[in-house]
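Structure first, sequence second, as always.
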């Protein structure tokens, strides 16, 4: 299971150029792979890597980890803004939001009071949420589930 998750997550980084430079995406990938390694070695062995349970388990790991990673990214960016140091690029934050981390982004904005006044950022944030839901709808429609 960890090997399949590793191939999938790092394959996305190879195919999607902005993810290669996004160090928070790599943190997310490491967290998902670590969680799958722990689960496989401590709870159950995987017989069929293409079963619906494994796919759902991957989605749960990904959603939890991407939201945690996005929240951390907002905290790192706020701290850098206060210190006038290197900042996290907005495109990296938006990529994390689109990959499912918009809940972590929303909490990060509220907790750290960061990126809430910049209208262009907020517009793009809302667009990422809409695009994510449109992508999910398109995938479910393609699979014939809706």
């Amino acid at each position: 299971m960890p090997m399949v998750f590793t191939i999938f997550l790092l394959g996305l980084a190879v195919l999607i150029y902005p993810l290669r430079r996004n160090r928070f995406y790599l943190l997310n990938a490491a967290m998902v792979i670590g969680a799958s390694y722990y689960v496989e070695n401590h709870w159950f062995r995987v017989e069929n890597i293409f079963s619906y349970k494994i796919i759902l388990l991957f989605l749960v790991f990904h959603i939890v980890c991407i939201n945690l990673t996005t929240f951390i990214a907002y905290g790192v960016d706020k701290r850098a803004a206060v210190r006038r140091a290197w900042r996290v690029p907005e495109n990296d934050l938006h990529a994390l939001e689109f990959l499912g981390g918009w809940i972590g982004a929303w909490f990060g904005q509220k907790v750290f009071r960061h990126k809430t006044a910049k209208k262009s950022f907020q517009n793009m944030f809302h667009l990422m949420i809409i695009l994510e839901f449109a992508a999910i709808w398109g995938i479910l429609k393609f699979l014939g589930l809706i």
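Margin note: The chain has a mean pLDDT of 85.
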